[in-house]
Amino acid sequence: MRSKGRPFIVFMSGTLYIVSVPIGNYSDMTQRAREVLENVDFIASEDTRRTAILLTNLNIENRNRLISNHKFNEAAKSRYFINDLVDGKDVAIVTDAGTPCISDPGNELIKDAIDRGIRVTPIPGCCAAIAALTVTGFDLSRFSFYGFFPRENATRKKLIVQIRRDARIPTIVFYESPKRIIDTVTYLAQELPGSRVCLCNDLTKLHEYVYRGTVEEVLQELSARETAEKGEYVIVMEIKRSEEDAAPANQLSPEAMLTEAVIREGISMKEAIKKLAADTENTYSKNELYEASLHLKDMF
Predict the structure, then answer these.
(1) CA dihedral 287, 288, 294, 298 (to 10 degrees)
(2) Rounded-to-integer distance, Cα 33 and Cα 93, Å
(3) Residue 237 pairs with which residues in a beta bridge?
(4) Which of 6, 125, 156, 220 sees the fewest Cβ atoms within 10 Å?
(5) Sheet containing 209-214: which strands, arranged edge to edge?
(6) What's the pLDDT tens digit per position in 79-135?
(7) pTM of structure
(8) How far is CA 213 from CA 23, 127, 142, 216, 222, in A?
(9) 83 vs 64: CA distance, rounded Å
(10) Three-class SS string for 188-214?
(11) Contacts for 274-277 with beta carbons within 8 Å, 24 or more apart?
């Protein structure tokens, strides 16, 4: 990054900075992140209004360099920013809160920058999922982060089957919105009874609150709390599994499952992929099944 007063270097591409910002408490902003946002030529922002408030609170005079970069326009804006980076400009990606790309925009621009040989560097800082994990006291030797809990019932069922069976992963993490939190915890109590939960609400903010206990206990406390439908949530669960749940998932490879479906049911490979992807007992994703079909095509 070129600091103020530094001469412009001709024919050198700029740097794309992936900048983590506070998830609630502005004091959590690192000095390095502050310096980057002060000196870059442009800031690719998920919501320019919220980033402008952040810059004001940090006394950073760079608001005129804010350019929107959200999930609905990031593919088109990526070309715009790449041109600036190729011309030697420095660009920082920020989201509303936390770390870009963790259930937030940014990945399209990062992939394009890497493909063009542009330097991409992280400016570490806050991440709500990691912050929540640190206060659980759960087994963190391995964990899985699933982003926002799915809304579609079929997708939920398939994910629960996968979680129950994968005994290698003791702890799972989700994000959830305040308006859906009671519905989601109710569903988890039905599907994963007895599991321990650390439910974090508005981490680092003035009204930070952490629910702890079994999923049933947390649901009871959550339902009784008048302010439950306010603030953002991180759900961390230490899964209680039965012996039946721990049975190996997908004992057949995706190639074998596709071949069996085609032969047994007399359907095309495309139909087999669609059928297996919709089967809640199958934990392979549609992309994995498609890759397996290409592998079969190469083999035969």
Answers:
(1) 160
(2) 11
(3) 172, 197
(4) 6
(5) 143-148, 171-176, 233-238, 196-201, 209-214
(6) 889 999 999 999 999 999 999 999 888 999 999 999 999 999 999 999 999 999 999
(7) 0.78
(8) 24, 23, 20, 8, 11
(9) 19
(10) HHHHCCCCEEEEEECCCCCCCEEEEEE
(11) none
